[in-house]
Design a protein that fits this description.
Length: 76
């Protein structure tokens, strides 16, 4: 059995993701770290946004995908 994953460890993992990369968080860790009440989804969205990610529910996991940086159009 794996030890409990902590919120600071998740923050480091998300901050270190490359653009477009995905980190899957097991559902049990999500429920323990974020919660299961009526505000948990909003908390998850804010947490993901704060780390420049989008969170999606998948089979047994929460998938965090790092957003792509906006590219500035060249002006010629």
């Amino acid at each position: 059995m794996r030890r409990n994953f902590t919120l600071p460890e998740l923050e480091v993992m998300l901050n270190g993701l490359e653009e477009g990369a995905i980190h899957d968080l097991p559902r049990g860790d999500y429920e323990r770290l974020i919660g299961e009440n009526d505000v948990a989804v909003g908390r998850l969205r804010n947490f993901a946004r704060g780390h420049n990610c989008v969170a999606s529910f998948a089979d047994g996991t929460i998938a965090f995908r790092k957003r792509l940086a906006a590219r500035e159009a060249s002006r010629e």
